[in-house]
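Minutes, project check-in

Agenda point 3 was the complex the collaborators sent over. CS summarized: two entities, 845 residues total, and the question is how they sit relative to each other. Sequences were read into the notes so everyone works from the same version.
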Amino acid sequence: MINSNDMNSECDPAGGMVLDNEIKELNAVAQEIEKVARSLGLDFFPVYFEVCPAEALYTFGAYGMPVRFTHWSFGKAFHRLKTQYDLNLSRIYELVINSNPSYAFLLEGNKLIQNKLVIGHVYAHVDFFKNNRYFKNTPRDMVERMAAHAQQIRNYELQYGQYTVEKTIDAVFSIQEHVDPRSHIGRRKLDEKEKKLTKKSNPISSVYEDLWSMAEKEAEVEITKKVEYEDLLLYLIEHAPSLQEWQRDVVSMIRDESLYFYPQMETKIINEGWATFWHSRIMREIGIEDGETIDAAIMHSQVVQPSRGALNPYYLGVKIWEALDKKYDRATLFDVREAENDVSFIRNYLDKEIIEELNLFNFRKMGAQWQVTDTAWKKVRDNLAQQLVRGGNPTIVVCDGDYGDKGGLLLRHCHEGLDLDLKYLEKTLAYVQYLWGKPAYLETIMDNRKLIFECQNGQVTKTQQQD
Amino acid sequence: MFVKDGVIVNHDDWGLHRKGYLDQSRHKEKVQEAIKQQLGDLIVDESIILSDGKKALKIPMRSLEEFRFKYDFNKRQHTGQSNQKVKPGDVLGKDSAEKGPGSGSGAGEEPGIDIYEAEITYEDLAAILFEQLKLPNLDDKKRPLISHERPEFNDVRKKGLTANIDKKRTLLESIKRQARNLVKTDELKITPEDLRYKTWETRPSYETNAVILAMMDTSGSMGQFEKYIARTFFFWMVRFLRTKYGNVTIRFLSHHTEAKEVTEEEFFTKAESGGTRCSSVYQLALDIIEKEYPPQHYNIYPIHFTDGDNISSDSNRALALMTKLVEISRVVGYGEILRTHYSSTLMSTLKRITDPKLRLVTIKDRSEVYLALKKVFS
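CS then shared the predicted structure for the full assembly.
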């Protein structure tokens, strides 16, 4: 039987409360590091640190936010993270929220020296959030917004039932990556101008104004039929024929959260590399006591150690930053952190030396074996960059909201040489159909054949298309 | 988060932060649901039946994957890292059921194949299965002899488990204490000595008396498959009865052309040969009931499994005896294991008995054992 006492002793083996003195000391350290970080040129929002036990930290890790709505997939993630921590397999030392002011959570039980390193790391992350252009449109009050979403979804659960709401969230989650984080670029402004132009050329009396606005609406419908939408969620919000109002609201909330997390997904290597690069420099500046040197070195090397076979984003990222630091001045480094995301960072700065030093290679499945296919640096670089496009998600666009003149939804997978996973495709299409309410279709290429998948009432069938 | 001037590090009490655990339990619930959906296949699994439940089973829970549009992991080219030089053509490893070796892609984000492997033991499986089974038509008026344990909350103490706190009494104690100490305040403070806990005693709760007559055809026509199905049914039946009901009596009878009573071990292991005469075992059952279990004192449940390949001259006699059995029993189960689509003559003969106490089941496929259990014991 578990009671709260057991839980406490489990998460804090030292068994002690964090002493006020310790917090005071940490506070002084954080203020010192803040000064050092500023003097080195980092530019960040104010950061508040919160020391919290493993339970809380791993909850934030699983949910991505201190307060977020309820869903079993977060519980699954939490269980996985917490188990790894309990078995001493991995450890999250900190978690930082992109907001203004920023919040960072430190693991209770971190040694002071570990916290020094972590705090430096955090300031560099916040500098990245504040200045990298991919974060320019992320709302900086997302902590409050997501808490409001959680409350709103809770209300829907009370009104419509937990499982009904869960079913909707399950479906929306399956396509949550399919939003358009660049929607602010281009098209919209042009549309505004066009509207003005048409208005000027057609002076209208107020009596008939409503007729004109009707015409405009029709024109909009025309556009939605022709233009390919990258933002599946927005399309559903605006056009799904049978979604209820509350469901539309749920889609819209999840879309907001997805857009908020999107740039983090696109800048993992560059951002972790940046933070790791700076924490070691900050540590050099503040100076560490003799007894701490080893602890600091051990922790730094744990963070950057290459995991077996897989790529460690901290390691790869910091290697590129170190190489850039040797070649260019600091001002250039700050420009790079402002302008690049993972794809462009890898494409522009991952060079021959680093690839050879890290023994990077391409591999694929040949028959039943996994084989190395390439070690040529350009091929490795390009493959890695390609894997990171759209955070590793395929591009799916909406082609038609009235397919077959029966109100079907036609999606198209923009095939760029990689086939989709068949089983996942079928299951996800069923979710799309659930949200759309009428049949849903997906056009893709599999084994060089052009296929259209059709989903009606949860049943998926496929037909081959003639070119 | 409340932050004072100049203070940028804070430490709050997060002891009540349980959100992760709440959603984790919903996830667990979904795992259980998935197990329930697969129950029909799981309970006939050899490794469970043969190992006598000591081995844990690993079952992939596909329904708990988080589906989305994603690239085919096996078809795409990945980038990996090695601690030594590699050259094209080097083999990194063979394909295991799960995923390739350097499964991490660029950002270490590719989760590979997301099968949620749930490990369940015999006990888990039994608990889920038994939850749905019961002895049907139990008559309470029969002599109380079998007991099963039941916790009863009937005491309040100062020490106990936090989950069992008695809120009302605790508040009362707190009010009383403040009144005693002449504290005049609207705020009610609860101190450790105010706490009161509910505790329980385990009491035997008496249930009515029951006897189960397990009857199995061991004739030559019962092949590997038929025997396996019948034994699987009885395997779960015996465990279910012993887990849920205190001292229910189970008698084992086997028959070909003649019937005899056997030990439990013999019942589950021995095979014989010869023809089939079902009336023999019905007669034996009736004899045992007459001698030892008077129907006015006992809930009687005869359960018979056969392949239905009965000597045709025996049909009328079997029908007459079965009618008698149905009369004196609470429920009679008759199971026929058939791999063809024909119904046997015995089955069609027994169908003439219209009493709902006779429950007829036909098993054509392994997964139907579960349905048969549910039909007989519900």
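Noted in discussion: Residues 4-132+267-338 of chain A form one domain.
Follow-up: revisit at the next meeting once the mutant set is ready.
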